[in-house]
Specification:
The complex is a heterodimer of chains A (about 425) and B (about 300).
Chain A lengths: L1 E8 L6 H11 L5 H13 L8 H4 L3 H6 L6 E6 L3 E8 L6 H9 L3 E7 L6 H12 L4 E7 L8 H15 L7 E5 L23 H7 L13 E2 L2 E3 L14 E5 L10 E5 L4 E8 L13 E6 L10 E3 L6 E12 L11 E6 L2 E14 L6 E2 L10 E14 L6 H4 E5 L6 E7 L4
Parallel strand pairs in A: 1-3, 1-4, 4-5, 5-6
Antiparallel strand pairs in A: 2-3, 7-13, 8-9, 9-12, 10-11, 10-13, 11-12, 14-18, 14-20, 15-16, 15-19, 16-17, 16-18, 19-20
Chain B lengths: L9 H19 L3 E4 L4 H14 L8 E5 L5 H14 L3 E5 H6 L17 H12 L3 E3 L16 E4 L27 E4 L7 H11 L10 E8 L2 E4 L13 E6 L12 E2 L5 H10 L4 H5 L9 H8 L3
Parallel strand pairs in B: 1-2, 1-4, 2-3, 4-6
Antiparallel strand pairs in B: 5-6, 7-8, 7-9, 9-10
C-alpha cells in the first residue's frame, strides 16, 4: 500500500467539504464521536443539514466565522492506498495556503459547480496547480444532479476548460462528473450518468500511477547531516563517517561513481546504510546514509550527483515567487534568507520582471513590488552557490523558501525556472 | 527487461519523512529534546530517532513531564527503555511545580493535573534552554492538530498562535527563532493511529503492558472507565467493578479511560482498531471533552 497526497481546491459553495466528508465517511475515516460533535454543532447553529465542513474547520476563529483559514490535513485509507488530503480554502486571499498544499501534492482536485461552469476561481486553481507542478489534475464537475445529469452540460464545461488548460502545462487532466451530495461517481459509478464511461473519483484516486512522477533519472542527494559516532555503541564504528540525507532524485547504488559539490571531486559510493542494514539501492523519498570510498571534506548543504549529470551551480537564479508576507512587500533590493534543499544562504532581489495576474495570466511588467498572495518573476543573487535544477525537472531541487530576517517568518515560496 | 517498480509503502514513506525531520532538527538547533512519555506515539518517535542517527547515539536528551499520576507500568517502561538506549532522561515533575508554588492543585472529584503539566513543561524548556522539542502528536488525533505545522513556532511564553503559522512547503522547514522562543516539532504529523500500530507490528517494538487486554478494577464516569487508584477521586455513587480492558491512549490515570477489550496481541489490536467507530481521544480522554475547542485552548497556552 502506498500513499497518495492530494490537494482539494474550491469553496464550500462548490461542495468541497461535502465531497471530502463523503470520501471520509464512505471510507469509514469519520468516527461516530466526530459525527456526533458535528451534528450537535450544526443543530446549535440552526443549520438544517449536517455541516460536514465542521469536520475540517478545526480552529475556533474558523468555526465562529464559518470560514476556512488554513490548510487542514485529513487522512483516510482504502485497502489499496493511504490518502493524505491537503484541504485548502479557495478564495484569492488564501493563494498562500493553496500553494502550500499543492507543493507536496501528487494530485489536485478542482471542483466546478456544473450550473456555474468554469469560473475565474477555477482558472486560478488550475494555474496554481500547474505552477506548483502537481503531476495529476482532476476536474470534478459537481452538482450534476442539479443539471439533470446532462452529458451536454458536462461536455460544454470539459471543452471550455480544455481550451483554457492548453495555455497551461497540464501533465495529466481527468474530468469526472459527480454529485458529492448524492454520491454519484464518488465512490462507485453512477447509474444516473450511463453516458459516462470513466472511473469513479475514488477509483481514479486509488489507481492513478504516481511512482514514476518522482524524478528517478537525475541523481541528487543533498547532504543533510554528518554522522560521526563519538560514543560509538560498537568499536566497529570507531572510524565511521556517514552522510545522511533524503534522496531528492535518481537511483543510487553501491559502487556508483558520484561527484561531490561544490568541490567537484569524484568518488564512489562504498555503502548505503540504514539502521536496518545496508541497502542495494536508494531512491526518492528514502532517508539513508551514504559512505564513500574516498575521504572528502563533506558538510551539510553539499550535494552528491553523478559526474555526467550534475545540477547547475548557480549564484544568479530566476524564479517565480509566491509572496506570503502579511505586510512586508517584495521589491528590488529586498534582502532575504533563502533555504534551498539543506543549504541556507542570503539572497538579494535584483529585479522584478513582472507580476502575474493569477486569474487572467496577464503579465504586468510595470509592477514594482509583490504583496501578500501575489506571484511574480524575479532574479535573485545568492551569497553562496546553490545546486539547482529547473523546478519543472525536480520539485525538491528546484523549489526554495524565503525567510524574513527581521521577523523570521516564511515569506516566500520560489520555483526556479529557465536555468541558463 | 522488466521495469523496476519504485513504489514505496506507506510506512516507508512516513518513516523516511520522520527521519528527515529529525535530522533537520539535529542539524539546525543547538539544544533539542524529545518528549518521551512511554506512550505508543513517543515510543515510535524514539525508534525513528534511533534510526535517524544510527550508528551514533541519539544526539539529544529525552524528557518526561511526570504528573505523578502515571501508570506504574508506563513509568517502569520509560526508565527501562531510556536506559537500554543509553539516553539521558530528564523528568520534569508536576509535584515539584506544586511544591514550588508555580501551580495550584485542582480540587474536587474531577481534579486533574493535566492542565498543570503545561507550566511544568514550559518551565523545564526554559530551565534547560531547549530550542526544539519533539512531540509525538498526530494530525489525525484532533482537529486543532490537523492544522498545526510540523515545525510549530512558540513565542517566549510558549504560546501557539494558530492564525500566524509559518507556511510549510515541500520538505523545507524554517528553523529560525530568537532566544527564548522555541519550536515544537511533530515528526509523526502524517501518521494515523493505524499507521502507528502497523509500524509497531512491523518493527516488533515493545510497548507497555497496559495497551493489552487485562483485568482491572474500574468505575464508570461519563461513559468512560477510570481505574481504581488513590490518585483518582471516586464518589460513593461510582461503584468499582472488575472489567477486561485495555488502554488505547496512555495519559494521566485521572483522565484516561480504558476500553473494554480482549485484544491481547498487536495483531488483535490492529483488528480492533480497523473496525472501531470512535476516535482514540473521543473514547478515552476526558481532557478533550471539556469543550469543542479544548485542545486548541490548551495548545495556545503551550500544551504538548
Amino acid at each position: 500500500m502506498d500513499i497518495l497526497r492530494f490537494a482539494t481546491a474550491g469553496s464550500v459553495d462548490d461542495g468541497k467539504s461535502t465531497l471530502i466528508g463523503r470520501l471520509l465517511f464512505d471510507s469509514k475515516a469519520i468516527f461516530e464521536d466526530q459525527l456526533e460533535a458535528v451534528e450537535r454543532t450544526s443543530r446549535d447553529r440552526g443549520t438544517e443539514y449536517t455541516d460536514l465542513s465542521l469536520l475540517t474547520d478545526g480552529l475556533r476563529a474558523e468555526r465562529e466565522q464559518g470560514i476556512t483559514i488554513d490548510v487542514a490535513y485529513r487522512y483516510f485509507a482504502t485497502p489499496r492506498r493511504k490518502f493524505i488530503i491537503a484541504d485548502t480554502p479557495g478564495h484569492i486571499q488564501y493563494t498562500r495556503n493553496m500553494v502550500t498544499g499543492a507543493s507536496t501534492a501528487d494530485l489536485a482536485i478542482i471542483l466546478i459547480d456544473a450550473r456555474k461552469g468554469v469560473l475565474e476561481q477555477s482558472r486560478r486553481h488550475a494555474f496554481l496547480t500547474t505552477l506548483l507542478r502537481v503531476p495529476h489534475l482532476v476536474l470534478a464537475v459537481n452538482k450534476m444532479d442539479l443539471v439533470d445529469y446532462s452529458e451536454e452540460r458536462f461536455e460544454e464545461i470539459r471543452e471550455e476548460f480544455t481550451a483554457f488548460a492548453s495555455k497551461l502545462n497540464v501533465a495529466d487532466l481527468t474530468f469526472i462528473p459527480i454529485s458529492a451530495l448524492n454520491g454519484d461517481n464518488v465512490v462507485s459509478r453512477s447509474e444516473n450518468m450511463p453516458w459516462y464511461h470513466g472511473s469513479s473519483l475514488l477509483h481514479h484516486l486509488e489507481n492513478v500511477h504516481i511512482a514514476s512522477d518522482r524524478n528517478l533519472v537525475d541523481v541528487r542527494f543533498p547532504v543533510q547531516y554528518v554522522i560521526r559516532p563519538q560514543r560509538a555503541t560498537d568499536h566497529a564504528f570507531h572510524d565511521y563517517r556517514g552522510y545522511a540525507g533524503q534522496v531528492a532524485g535518481g537511483v543510487l547504488k553501491p559502487g556508483d561513481e558520484v561527484v561531490h559539490l561544490p568541490s567537484g571531486l569524484a568518488t564512489r559510493i562504498a555503502s548505503i546504510d540504514t539502521f536496518d542494514g545496508p541497502v542495494e539501492e536508494a531512491f526518492p523519498p528514502m532517508s539513508v546514509t551514504l559512505r564513500f570510498e574516498d575521504d572528502i571534506d563533506i558538510s551539510r548543504g553539499d550535494m552528491i550527483a553523478r559526474p555526467n549529470n550534475q545540477p547547475q551551480v548557480a549564484q544568479e537564479i530566476d524564479a517565480m515567487i509566491c509572496w506570503m508576507a502579511d505586510s512586508a512587500k517584495l521589491a528590488p533590493r529586498s534582502k532575504l534568507m533563502i533555504k534551498h534543499t539543506t543549504r541556507t544562504a542570503r539572497a538579494l532581489v535584483r529585479d522584478l520582471h513582472y507580476r502575474l495576474d493569477v486569474n487572467t495570466l496577464h503579465r504586468d511588467e510595470t509592477a514594482t513590488s509583490l504583496s501578500l498572495n501575489e506571484i511574480g518573476r524575479v532574479s535573485l543573487r545568492i551569497t553562496q552557490p546553490l545546486f539547482v535544477d529547473d523546478y519543472s525537472r525536480n520539485r525538491l531541487t528546484g523549489g526554495f523558501i524565503l525567510v524574513d530576517e527581521a521577523t523570521n517568518g516564511t515569506v516566500g515560496a520560489g520555483m526556479i525556472m529557465d536555468l541558463r | 527487461m522488466l521495469q523496476r517498480d519504485y513504489t514505496t509503502s506507506q510506512l516507508d514513506v512516513l518513516e523516511a519523512e520522520a527521519i528527515h525531520i529529525m535530522r533537520e532538527v539535529a542539524a539546525e538547533f543547538e539544544r533539542p529534546c524529545l518528549l518521551f512519555s512511554g506512550g505508543k506515539d513517543s515510543i515510535v518517535m524514539l525508534r525513528i530517532a534511533e534510526k535517524a542517527f544510527w550508528p551514533a547515539p541519539i544526539p539529544f536528551p529525552l524528557m518526561h513531564v511526570d504528573t505523578g499520576h502515571n501508570f506504574d507500568e508506563v513509568i517502569e517502561f520509560r526508565d527501562r527503555r531510556s536506559e537500554e538506549l543509553g539516553a539521558r532522561l530528564i523528568v520534569a515533575s508536576v509535584q515539584d511545580s506544586i511544591d514550588a508554588g508555580r501551580v495550584v492543585e485542582e480540587t474536587g472529584r474531577r481534579a486533574s493535573r493535566n492542565r498543570l503539566q503545561t507550566t511544568t513543561l514550559l518551565d523545564a524548556i526554559e530551565d534547560q534552554e531547549f530550542d526544539a522539542v519533539f512531540g509525538g502528536a498526530r494530525r489525525d488525533e484532533e482537529k486543532a492538530r490537523a492544522k498545526e505545522r510540523v515545525f510549530s513556532f512558540r513565542d517566549d511564553f510558549g504560546q501557539w498562535d494558530p492564525k500566524n503559522q509559518r507556511p510549510e512547503l515541500w520538505n523545507l522547514y524554517n528553523a529560525r527563532i530568537r532566544k527564548g522562543e522555541h519550536i515544537r516539532v511533530f515528526p509523526l504529523s502524517n501518521w494515523t493511529e493505524l499507521d502507528i500500530w502497523d509500524y509497531i507490528r512491523r518493527e516488533g517494538i515493545e510497548i507497555p503492558s497496559i495497551y493489552f487486554s487485562h483485568t482491572r478494577k474500574v468505575f464508570e464516569r461519563d461513559g468512560m472507565l477510570l481505574p481504581d487508584s488513590e490518585v483518582v477521586k471516586r464518589g460513593d455513587d461510582e461503584p468499582l467493578f472488575e472489567a477486561v480492558v485495555r488502554y488505547r491512549t496512555v495519559g494521566d490515570m485521572t483522565c484516561t479511560g480504558a476500553v473494554q477489550s480482549t485484544a491481547a496481541t498487536v495483531e488483535e489490536i490492529i483488528e480492533e482498531i480497523a473496525v472501531t467507530r470512535i476516535t482514540e481521544r473521543g473514547a478515552t480522554r476526558a481532557d478533550d471533552r471539556a469543550s469543542e475547542a479544548a485542545m486548541e485552548d490548551r495548545k495556545r497556552e503551550g500544551y504538548f
